[in-house]
Amino acid sequence: MSTDTSTAVQEPPHPAPDRPQARTLARLAAGRAPAPPSTAAALHSVSGATAVMLVLVAIGAVIHEPVLIPPLAASAAIVHSMPGLPLAQPRSVIAGHLICAAVGYGALAAFGSAPWVAAVAAGVALAAMTMARTPHSPACATAVVIVLRTPDPATFVPLLAGSAVLLVLAGCALSRARAGATRYPVYWW
Which domain holds residue 62? Predict the structure, then answer.
């Protein structure tokens, strides 16, 4: 009589179904996001962005014109919290806003002020920035603001340009004010 000493591996009665969605979610959850900044670095970024936006508000109060617009607030956040990104560099911040302003005013002149015109202007502005190698996503909103709010270009464009330059200069100064901070800009042009 022969005895079999091997043990049989039993299959589970109902194998787990293959779930591609579960694997995809697991991959997304295990992504490669950068480590969060230190508390000191986060406070430095927040205080820098807040300070430059308060300066824009003060300038607006003195000249009785709105200077801080939502796209500039988004630009300040990018310059101060992610200074190494291509869209945070001076070329992208300044030229991006000016290119998008030109697209916004062109769309406004050609088609008037309407939500659909604002949407098309944002898309065309994105294409123009891409072609000019000046990626700066908040600047697309500048085209939208122009189409929907119809500001006087003689006032709006100089204020926009000056505000973008101020954001860049504040980013330069604040990156040098904290030891170990990422130097801004990585490149000028």
Answer: 40-177
